[in-house]
Amino acid sequence: MKFFRSLSIATRFNLLNVLLVLITAISVAGIVTYVQLAHQFQARYEQGQVLATLLAETSEYAVYTRQNSLLERQFVRLRKVSDLVYVVIVDDKGQTLAHMETQDNITLPVANRNNTLTLWQWLMEANQPHFMEIVQPIISSDFQDEEALFLDTHSKERAIGEVRLGISLLYFEEIVHYSLRLGLIVLLMILIIGISISVAMTAHITSPLKKVVLAAHDVIEGNIKELRLEGGAPELQELTRSFNLMINWLIDYRAEVDHYQRMLERQAYFDELTGLANRSQLKNQLHQMLNRSTRRRSSVALLFLDLDRFKYVNDTLGHSFGDQLLQKIAQCLRQNARDCDLVARMGGDEFIMILNELSSEKEQAKRYAGNVAKRISQVLSQPFVIGGHNINTSFSIGIALSPYDTDDDETLIRFADSAMYEAKRNGRNTFYYYEPWMQKQNVRRLILETNLKRALEKRQLIPFFQPKIDCLTHRVVGVEVLLRWHFGDEWVSPSEFIPLAEEVGLILPIGEWIMEAALVTLLNWRSKGIVDDDFHISVNVAVSQFWHPSFADRTLSIIAQYIPDIPSILELELTESCLLQSSQAVRDTFVRLKEAGVLFAVDDFGTGYSNLHYLKHFPLDTLKIDQSFIRDCVEDACDASIIRAIITMAKGLGLSVVAEGVETIEQVDFLQAEGCHLVQGYIYARPMIADDFVLFLQRFNHDKIVSLPL
Amino acid sequence: MLLFGLCSSGFAMSATNILVLQSHNSVPYQQTLEGFKANFSARNTAVDYAVHIVNNDAELGDLWDQLVAKRPELIVTLGAPATRATLSREHNIPVVAGLMLNIDELKKNTNATGVGLNFPASLQWLWMRRLLPEARRIALIHDPEHGTALFQALQKMAKAENITLDPVPASNPEDIPELLKSLPNQLDALWVVNGVAAFNSATVQELLLYSFRNRTPLIGLSAQWVKAGAIYALDWDYADLGQQLGELAGAILQKGLSPSSLVPIEPRKVRPVFNMKTAEYMKLDVANQWMSEMGEVLR
User: Fold this and answer.
1) pLDDT at residue A687, as a whole number
2) Are B116 and B91 in contact (CB under 8 A)?
3) Cα–Cα distance for residue pair B20/B41, rounded to 1 Å
4) pTM for this one?
5) Which of B26, B101, B177 faces A153 most closely, judged by CB atoms?
6) Beta-carbon separation of A148 and B221 below 8 A
7) To the nearest whole number, what is the mean pLDDT of chain A?
């Protein structure tokens, strides 16, 4: 069975055909030969039977009358009969009346009166005799009475003896042998012809199958192509059609897989939005570039680019707009890179450009990288036109050089990131080379970021209060709450931790906490009569805090909790950046808070964008002149003019004006001369804790003299 | 009219039952029976026939009681075996026998009569002389038991005409070879007059062979012998034999005669049959004048 299973279809077909041919040929040849031989045997038997019948009829009278000589006289003529072996005539008692043998030493067999010897019986006999014996009874009819008159009348018959003939079968045996030899030859010829035809036909039938198998092997080896078969049976045509359908499906499937594979590779190594290399590709390429640089003794510069104010663009104009901006910037970066350079997008608004194969001289490499950074900045200084909007943007760029700063790829990125942060910290739209201290600053930033999250719980955030004084009345009309972080042994500056809080998303809870703390303190002071009823308290609000969708609700909730029926005692100080967005949501925030009695002041007025349009559109109450104008207002005519203009504009708009950072009497005098009577600064008091502020307030009310707490 | 109707009805109701027992059903038997029936039909006698083949006594034994139970008024037997079987049984039914060579068997039974097959010696001699007028020495094969009278009658007629008749008595077939060997060389004819017991198919064939080998015409016993090669034979008009049997039966049934009162009779018609081919082979001169009286001439 295992052997049969190992045979090919063609071999199985051939074996089957050989078997069928063999069975058919043997059957047909056997049957035909047997029938022919049986006919010959029967004919020979009937010939002998006729001879015996004739002999019996002619012997009747001689037997009846015992004329043996007559019987023997008949035998003389029988000698000429070929194949006659012997003749014996016996009477009804078995006594031999006459006999004749044509061969010597013949042993007469026992009479077979059955008279039905067939070829089969003869063949089945173990010792086949070389002759067949035919026994024919000699019948005589005796008439009765008048029957002799009518000779044709049926008369009573009886056997009066019998004739026994022996017919030689030697010639028949020769015929049998000849027939068997002939049958064997015919059988062999049929077998040879049958096998030849079978092999040829099987080869013809199975050759298309072999082509299908070869085509299948081709498919396995990746050579996928359709199968072309000419001719063949309908089943093979159907098989070919099915095979080709499968091939077409495979081609489609393979194309689809290739497509997805390319897409996955693209997704794995390229940024989907910009088509630039992604972080993974950057890492691989950077590693190779650094290795190559080491081998070639060249240098590599890594530029870490962070788009300034991208979040503002994204939030203002929508993500689709931001995406288009990123695509244009990516295109711009590619255009400013050489073929050997690499531009990658790290995610968000961060890009990296690797300048490869720079000079081995550090200064030359540094200069080249700086030039590229400048070129990029120049290009970006041109506004992008997207959807009818002119977008001005810039990059904060950090540059790190390998092998001078480091030869490790990840470290190089981190160093460039630190330099970029420094650029961003220093006013954006500039570039910085990496310096070792930047890394230390980064470490500090990380530490601060980690601890800021627990600062509220640890009560490390402390509200400080700086009074606002009316120079005309010599009264403290309000106070600005300034947040301080006492971390460890140092006081962390708000300019350091507030942006950090904005970055890590802590500005909302911190903002709410300081607002609550301020109101609680104010209520405490009011309840103790420390301040008047019109005494207000100012709280700084960061841009991201103000633009938060829930800012109005949460602020109103705080107001409702602490000062539900006391209007105009809470002032929110906003930077000009908060007012740049003129969306309906911002306007709603203004309206809702204004209705709740909240006052609005523009902090650091004059340092931001010079779009004064917002002054008309938002319900503002106060402009706070930035201390940078105040600092040199006495000596600098420009600053004086600006202050003068601001005061004039505020009066024209019906707004109060507060001067920040007033430190000298001359500055107070100047401001008063120009009509600005509300001042805030070290000349009166530095920011202080609540208890100190109470003491300050008591002293100020009593003495009307400023005493700076040290 | 009513009386006539009743009489007709009564006659029709009393149809005569006749039992016919015949040894064979060959043509001569059939023709004889038809002649018998024709005789009754001519007399407008209604007869119910019951016909059976009885070739020996054993065959009749099984049937006899059933046949007798039907109360046949007459038994007609055709052939010696049927006749012997019928006469061997005790009964009082009249028997009319036909197609029998030995009518002496009937004479022993008072209840039987019939018509024999033997022609008178004179008639046989007459036709021998007509057809073989040149024959001077003739071997006469006869039954020594029953044919002696016939031989003597023929011998007497032969002597009168100076013709030699050599007696060849044959009582069984085994005698024939020796008899043929002992026949004189110069024979003009071989005449079989009776002695059927001596013949079987082989001996008849041997007689015919002898006849042809020696060109000695054989005078046979019947038309069948002539057809087999004999020169001539006096055959019977079997229908007339039947008529003769019918007349005897009518005498018994209608006239009320006893069978014993009716002496068995000889056939009244002869039907010579001649074989012209044999005559030509034997180179015999045939007297054409008698051909018109032949019942049949085989050519």
Assistant:
1) 92
2) no
3) 16
4) 0.44
5) B26
6) yes
7) 86
